[in-house]
Amino acid sequence: MFIDFEGIDGSGKTTLSNALAERLAARGLPVTHARAGGELRTALGRRVRPLTRDPQLLEMGPRAELFLNLAREAQQLDEVVRPALARGNICITDRSLVSQIALSAGGRGLPEEAVRAAAELAGEGLWPDLILLVDVDPDFARMRKRASKIRDGIADEESGRKGKKK
């Protein structure tokens, strides 16, 4: 089974997905968490993610952002998710191709049909069996995100590209 947690930044996806992975593993079930602790499990994914979040790259267009994000997700699927499912593991993600459709079509204004086709190609037909949407008030999510940054000592770092314009 492939389970995906979706929601806005700060909604608690990582907290909930980690808790589910731990509970299932404690019950003796084989579990792979593709983003345990919020950390991508592929080297490519860990290198691409900062590019898509870099506030100095405001010139990055929506299509370039989509293709970088799809490349990251395709690598996660190929290196982590598919092998885990082939071993019979329950595989948990916190964000997946579904996020890319929402961000690129809903948030960046790209044509939804084209974005879905690109996501389908990136995933080669592999979609979560269960998608859990963590729906929280955006103000609450921002507060959680800010508190997390303060706790981790990164409160003074520049925020990412989200919501910024060229």
Secondary structure: elements and pairs:
Elements: E1 2-6, H1 13-26, E2 31-33, H2 43-53, H3 62-86, E3 90-94, H4 97-107, H5 112-123, E4 130-133, H6 138-151
Parallel strand pairs: 1-3, 1-4, 2-3
Walk me through this protein's architecture.
This protein is α/β, with parallel strands linked by helices and 166 residues long. The chain has one domain (2-151): 3-Layer(aba) Sandwich (Rossmann fold), CATH 3.40.50. The chain has six helices and four strands. It has helices at residues 13-26, 43-53, 62-86, 97-107, 112-123, 138-151; strands at residues 2-6, 31-33, 90-94, 130-133. Strands 2-3-1-4 form a four-stranded parallel sheet, with helices on both faces. Helix 2 (43-53) packs antiparallel against helix 3 and helix 4 (97-107) packs antiparallel against helix 5. The longest helix is centred in the middle third of the chain and has 25 residues, at 62-86. The radius of gyration is 16 Å and the shape is globular. The termini are far apart. 30% of the residues are buried.
Summarize the structure.
The chain is of the alpha/beta class and 166 residues long. Helices cover 52% and strands 10% of the residues.
Proportion of strand residues: 5-15%
Distance linking N and C termini:
41 Å
User: How many domains make up the coordinates?
Assistant: 1
Q: Under the CATH scheme, which architecture would be assigned?
A: 3-Layer(aba) Sandwich
- Report the total helices: 6
CATH homologous superfamily caption: P-loop containing nucleotide triphosphate hydrolases
Order of H and E elements: EHEHHEHHEH
Determine and state the CATH class.
Alpha Beta
Total number of strands? 4
Largest beta-sheet details = 4 strands, parallel
What order do the strands of the largest sheet run in, or round the barrel if closed?
A: 2-3-1-4
Low-pLDDT regions: none
Class from helix and strand fractions: alpha/beta
Rounded Rg: 16 Å
Q: Residue-averaged pLDDT, rounded?
A: 91
Helicity, as a percent range: 40-55%
Shape descriptor reads globular
**What is the third-level CATH name, the topology?**
Rossmann fold
